[in-house]
UniProtKB/TrEMBL annotation:
It is found in: Membrane. GO terms for molecular function: symporter activity. It comes from Billgrantia gudaonensis. Coiled coil: none annotated. Signal peptide: none annotated. The chain crosses the membrane at residues 12-30, 42-67, 88-112, 150-169, 181-201, 221-247, 259-283, 303-329, 341-370, 390-407, 428-447. Keywords: Membrane, Symport, Transmembrane, Transmembrane helix, Transport. The keyword Transmembrane helix applies. The keyword 4Fe-4S does not apply. One of its GO terms (cellular component) is membrane. This is Transporter.
């Protein structure tokens, strides 16, 4: 396989958009608010922001560096770079666990993508109009209780993902992301505006930003770190795979800043949109994965033009989920395409069907398999916890340690366009702060 033959992004802009498209997704709008709600609010938010800056940023850059130098799928890239530098062959484990993590995450991500599709349709057919909190709640529980319905929408979502990935990553992605991101931000602002009219905005602000430090424990910090990994698509091979399509001209540091800023702004806006509605309607803060699916339809049902706004919102949520899901399948497909004789289409179908099957187990945990517990978790929660709290952080840890300790320091400094104090800062953060941060959180949550 000639290195030169490896495809590249058509422009710097496409890369930025694809990386942002991967980062911004259900993690921001669906997961962030419910994690904040479950973990007690502001203390979680602030720990999360620290994790994004001190751990997320260096690991994002480390993954791009590895991908760009390897110019191959994450598994081969790690194997080659380790070999070239005379390091342990075992470093390949970082690539393997990344590809595996992406695969596992997509299985349950697709189930939620399916909910989003179902709610898009429900907005069109007026399924939510004129309902109170109980009525909206009943739509949600009804959906969860129906394996057939969940299967239908999970399948529809996976068919879309497979269809797009089979045609190649860059086709169509650029245009989609370029229009959808701004639309998403505007719609979130409209929702925040609605939150202000509920009269409970102050309460929401206090909940999100005025911390009760007593609420911080090992569990909260681990959850915050896991969310930082999840939301930035770290530890899953994605950013490594995307980096492998990257030319030398892209400035990694400034690109990382852009992606992180956008991702964080959208997550915070989602929180500011959702919590006023939660307080205004006396809903449960810790209603978990269902949070946005019970709060937002309620808001849309009560505001002028709510039907059309609701439709737009769930459509955008679906698109955001799709652009992330596409990125999740990519590392596994890239691997199969480069390592086996399968064509791109066949590789995509193979991986996609595997993910789809696993997703069926995940969706059954809301109904038929609800009592089937492994280590005290149902299958959905097991996949979620296993990936975001263990697999992603460990893979990210491996990536940043490898980039900071095993790649040549001068070369990396040049590549990141850093010199002097800025370069030393990078070295301190990437060699010590980020890895020790990840390790400390683990140890703390084990003993805590
Ligand atoms: N970063 C995406 C989000 O926040 O929704 C989710 C995600 C995409 C997680 C891709 C992991 C991933 F590899
Ligand atoms: Na995200």
């Amino acid at each position: 396989m000639s290195k030169l033959a490896h495809a590249q992004w058509s422009s710097k802009m496409t890369f930025v958009l694809a990386a942002a498209g991967s980062a911004v997704g259900l993690g921001n709008i669906w997961k962030f608010p419910y994690m904040v709600g479950e973990s007690g609010g502001a203390a979680f938010v602030l720990v999360y922001l620290v994790c994004i800056g001190l751990i997320g940023l260096p690991i994002l850059i480390a993954e791009w560096l590895i991908g760009r130098r390897g110019q191959e799928n994450p598994i081969n890239a790690m194997a080659d770079l380790a070999k070239r530098g005379g390091h342990f062959p075992a470093w390949v484990a970082v690539g393997i666990s990344g590809v595996l993590g992406g695969f596992l995450i997509l299985s349950f991500y697709s189930v939620i993508g399916g909910w989003s599709l179902y709610y898009t349709l429900g907005s069109v057919t007026g399924n939510f109009s004129g309902k109170d909190a109980d009525g909206i709640g009943a739509v949600f529980t009804g959906m969860l209780g129906s394996p057939g319905l969940l299967l239908l929408w999970h399948t529809a979502f996976m068919v879309l993902v497979i269809g797009i990935v089979a045609r190649g990553v860059t086709n169509g992605l650029e245009g989609a992301v370029r229009t959808l991101m701004p639309a998403l931000v505007i719609l979130m602002l409209v929702l925040v505006g609605y939150g202000i009219t509920t009269g409970h905005f102050g309460e929401a602000l206090a909940f999100m930003f005025s911390p009760d430090w007593g609420a911080v424990n090992g569990e909260v910090v681990l959850a915050a770190m896991g969310q930082a990994f999840f939301t930035l698509s770290l530890g899953m091979g994605i950013m490594m795979a995307y980096g492998s399509y990257l030319g030398e001209d892209v400035n990694l540091l400034s690109t990382a800043r852009t992606v992180i800023l956008l991702d964080t702004v959208i997550a915070v806006l989602a929180g500011l949109a959702i919590f006023p509605i939660v307080f205004a309607n006396g809903l449960d803060l810790d209603s978990g994965p269902g949070l946005i699916f019970v709060t937002l339809p309620l808001a849309f049902g009560n505001m002028a033009g709510g039907t059309i706004l609701g439709l737009m919102f769930f459509l955008l949520l679906t698109f955001a989920a799709l652009t992330s899901a596409i990125s999740l399948l990519e590392p596994a497909v890239e691997f199969m395409e480069e390592r086996t004789s399968l064509s791109r289409v066949a590789a995509t179908a193979t991986c996609g069907i595997g993910v789809w099957l696993l997703g069926i187990l995940a969706l059954l945990s809301f109904n038929l398999l609800g009592d089937f517990l492994i280590l005290g978790f149902n299958i959905f929660d097991l996949l979620d916890n296993l990936t975001s709290k263990i697999l992603l952080p460990l893979t990210g840890l491996g990536a940043v340690v490898f980039a900071a300790w095993c790649l040549d320091r001068q070369g990396v400094a040049q590549e990141l366009r850093l010199s002097g104090g800025a370069e030393s800062l990078w070295v301190v953060v990437a060699r010590y702060i980020a890895p020790l941060g990840v390790i400390a959180v683990f140890v703390n949550s084990l003993v805590g």
